[in-house]
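User: Sequence for Calmodulin below. Tokens please.
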Amino acid sequence: QLLQKYGAKSTLCPKTEQHEAVVDNSKGVTIQHNEPPLQEAEDHMPLGTIAYCPPELFLKGSTATPASDMWAIGVIMFILLTGSHPFDRFSDKTDDDIKDTLIKLRPSNSDHLNLMDELVFDDRIEGLSDSCIALMRRLMQPDPNKRLLSEDFLRHPWIQGLTASWKTMGKAHDKLKSLWQNKFRTEIIKKYAKDGPGDGSLSENNLKEIFQALDLKKNGVLELEEIMTVFRDMGITEENIRTIFECADLDGTGVIHWEEFRALMREHINDGPGLQVRYLQQRFKSHVLNNFADKETTTISDRSNLREIFKAIDLKGNGILDPHEIRVVLRSAGEQ
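Assistant: Structure tokens for Calmodulin:
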């Protein structure tokens, strides 16, 4: 599903580095081996999906080569292992944005390798094996003459399973979740905030108006059926809409409340579980304030007050708060 945004037809997302993936890209051309090296010249738009094109394909007179495919393999590998496109971390870039970035990565730019590290090999690769990272670097080598050959790719120890980690990639699902939450945000801004600020920021009133426009049933929550109706008009598949909705439903209640919608639209999401945790923490804090804080200020004035509140919640008096005690507090506040 993740790669459909960038033109791929079918994928299997891995749980560990060892798992394989099947990809069927939408475009292909017949290529000739041993073609002469490309010359720096006027930019042009290459045949194929921009998100998978290497920097050299934006040169005038360029054609696809085996090296082009190796770059695309590197991009696909990065997406599957990190849950984001190497040059579109938050899934909000246009083809022109990606093209502009790739042009900057040409070997003629003396700083192109440092730029690759800054844009691609950032915190997203944390948890991947050194061998895996080294392979992606060789696949996404901006200089096609230095890029990994297909026969060397097949013999690489990571591909052979000799150096690939068998450790479950616990953050992979979270990264995918973050991407879909960004998709929710960017698609809504694209549809409802075309005339808003260039940075995509929205006022509180803007958000309320958008929420009301999405709330077709006027019942104060966004249901899957409503999101289906709106997002289907944007050309998003039903399967992807369901995935987007599940990731946007931060508290797992089956509907998107105003508070969830506001949290999703307000934050520049780069950590799916972080956003969800912060949202739930804020709700817990609100319930504690409503039940225990000074009613006039809705604040907790000092540490002694915090200790008193902790003791009040600690029903067993054992110095810790267990799930049952938290459940009692939340249920008294109307939480399910």
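Strands lie at 221-222, 256-257.
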